Amino acid sequence: MIKAKRILNRFSPVRVLPSAFYQRQLAALTIVGILFWCISQHDALDFWITRFWYQADTHSFALKDNYWLELINHKLLKFTIIGCAVCALLWGVYRKNGQLTVVMILLGLGTAVVGLLKAYSIHSCPWSLTEFGGQAAYLHLFESAPEGVNTGPGRCFPGGHASSGFSVMALFFLFYPLRPKAAWLYWLLGVSLGMTMGFGQIMRGAHFLSHNLWSGWWIWLTQVVFYWLISYAVAYYRQPH
How crowded is residue 138: how many other Cβ atoms within 10 Å of its Cβ? Predict the structure, then answer.
C-alpha cells in the first residue's frame, strides 16, 4: 500500500466530481435505459432500418463485403481511435498526468465491458437470422432462448464495433468541470462516432440499431461508474494517513 501511494503521489491529482453530477447521470441513464428497452422490445424500428440494406431477391446484404465500408468504417476509424488512445495513455504515464491517464483507462474499460457482454450474448447478427437469409431464430433482447430453438452463432449484442466510437465519450472527463462546454462537445463527438461506426455495421447487416444504442449506454455507464470509483480511490490514497 505504501508503494502504491508513492506511485500515485508522482502523478498529478485526478479531479473529484460532486455527488450531484453522478446523481444526474444515473437518473439520465435510467430514463434512457427504459427508452432503449422499449425500442428493443418493439423491434419494428430495428427491422425497418435494416430492411433498407437487405436485398430480398438475393437473400443477402449487398454491402456486407463492401471494400470501402470495411476499410474506412470497420478498420481505419477503429484502429485510429485505438492508436490515439494508446499513445495518449503512454504520454499521460510519461508526463505523470493523472487525469489523462485515468481518462484513457476509461476509454479501454468501456469497450472491454461491451466486449465481455458480447462474448456471452445469445443474440445473432441480422445476417444470421432467418428474416434476412440466415438460419438463426430472432430473439428479443433480454429474452431467453426456448428449448430447441436455433439461436445461431450469437455474440452480436451489444454492438462491439460501435463501442470504439462511443469510447471517445471518455474525453468528457478530461475537461469537465474546468471546461464544461468543451467536455460536452467531446461527449457528443463520441456519440457521433459511435452512431456513425454503428450505422456502417447496420448497412452491412452486422447489427441492429438497438445493438448500437445499448453499446453507447453501457459505455457511458461504465465510464461514469469507474471514474467515480477511480477518482475517489486515488483521492483517498493520496491523503496522509
Answer: 21
- Residue spans per domain, the chain: 19-123+158-238
The residues that bridge with 60 in the sheet, in sequence order, are 55
Backbone angles phi, psi at 99, to 5 degrees: -65, -50
Number of H helices, E strands in the chain: 10, 2
DSSP 3-state of 125: coil
pTM reported for the whole predicted model: 0.94
C-beta of residue 81 within 8 angstroms of C-beta of residue 167: yes
The whole-number average pLDDT for the span 20-45 is 94
* Lowest mean pLDDT segment, chosen from 72-76, 164-168, 187-191, 236-240: 236-240
Q: How far apart are CA 167 and CA 216, in angstroms?
A: 8
Q: How far are the Cα atoms of 9, 182, 210 from residue 3, in angstroms, in the given order?
A: 10, 36, 45
Q: Which residues contact 131 (CB under 8 A, 6 or more apart)?
A: 47, 138
Q: Which residues contact 119 (CB under 8 A, 6 or more apart)?
A: 155
Query: In 11-159, which residue ranges form alpha helices assigned H by DSSP?
Result: 19-41, 44-51, 67-68, 77-94, 98-119
